[in-house]
């Protein structure tokens, strides 16, 4: 069975955007963020920059919502915003709990250490925008990124095998994190594989949102312990 069978998680619907259109729209949606971000220097270094990031993210979500409607789907169903069952929810939470020590063990073996996250957190603390930084990191980014990657992009890869779809969305997610060190991209790819698996298993993008948010929360709690 195709991992993106449009009948699998929402019932009978028209075909989603095909792969070519999906990739084309995906790059367009990314440009909606990155062109203004570069022009207005949205660098997460100030409260104004974080507000700009939220606005641009909202534009992206509006765009994929419109695209879902243009495909003659209810936007929530197209983007995987359907209620997961209790069993999958428990599995999702346990999966994140297991991923945390697994990643830190791998990072220790490979000697991976990234100062970028430390620097961003320390700067947010220094300029007094830590609550907003937490909100963007734990809520806004996980919800928005999962809607785009495990929602819109995932839905559009109709007809591909689970391995191809899960790995493709994970790689595109990593590439979207422009400017990050390879070690952080490795982390994103591995986490993305886990999130994609849960998206496929549950038929819902809600659990990847939850898992993504829990991971970011864990990272920030660790930084709060270090700096406070």
Question: Would you mind describing this structure in some detail?
Answer:
The chain is an all-alpha fold. The chain has helices spanning 19-39, 47-70, 75-78, 86-110, 116-127, 130-156, 162-176, 182-202, 206-227. The termini are far apart. The model is unreliable at 1-7 (pLDDT under 50).
What is the gist of this entry?
This protein has 228 residues and is an all-alpha fold.
String of helices and strands: HHHHHHHHH
Structural class by SSE content: mainly alpha
Helicity level: over 70%
The description of the largest β-sheet is: none
Amount of beta strand: under 5%
Average of pLDDT: 92
Shape: globular
The end-to-end span amounts to 50 Å
Radius of gyration: 18 Å
Flag low-confidence runs.
1-7
Total strands: 0
Q: Specify the number of helices.
A: 9
List keywords for this structure.
single chain, 228 residues, 75% helix
Give the helix/strand layout.
Blueprint: H1 19-39, H2 47-70, H3 75-78, H4 86-110, H5 116-127, H6 130-156, H7 162-176, H8 182-202, H9 206-227
Helix pairs in contact: 1-2, 1-6, 2-6, 4-8, 4-9, 6-7, 6-9, 7-8, 8-9
């Amino acid at each position: 069975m195709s991992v993106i069978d449009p009948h699998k998680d929402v019932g009978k619907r028209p075909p989603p955007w095909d792969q070519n259109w999906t990739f084309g729209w995906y790059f367009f949606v990314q440009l909606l963020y990155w062109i203004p971000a570069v022009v207005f220097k949205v660098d997460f270094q100030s409260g104004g920059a974080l507000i700009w990031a939220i606005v641009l993210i909202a534009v992206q979500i509006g765009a994929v919502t419109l695209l879902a409607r243009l495909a003659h789907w209810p936007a929530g169903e197209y983007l995987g915003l359907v209620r997961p069952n209790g069993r999958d929810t428990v599995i999702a939470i346990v999966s994140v709990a297991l991923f945390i020590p697994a990643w830190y063990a791998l990072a220790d073996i490979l000697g991976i250490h990234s100062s970028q996250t430390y620097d961003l957190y320390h700067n947010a603390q220094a300029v007094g925008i830590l609550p907003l930084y937490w909100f963007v990191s734990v809520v806004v980014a996980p919800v928005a990124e999962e809607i785009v990657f495990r929602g819109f992009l995932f839905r559009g890869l109709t007809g591909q095998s689970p391995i191809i779809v899960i790995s493709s969305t994970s790689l595109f997610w990593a590439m979207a994190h422009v400017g990050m060190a390879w070690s952080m991209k490795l982390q994103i790819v591995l986490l993305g594989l886990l999130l994609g698996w849960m998206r496929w298993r549950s038929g819902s993008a809600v659990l990847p949102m939850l898992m993504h948010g829990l991971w970011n929360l864990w990272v920030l709690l660790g930084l709060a312990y270090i700096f406070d």
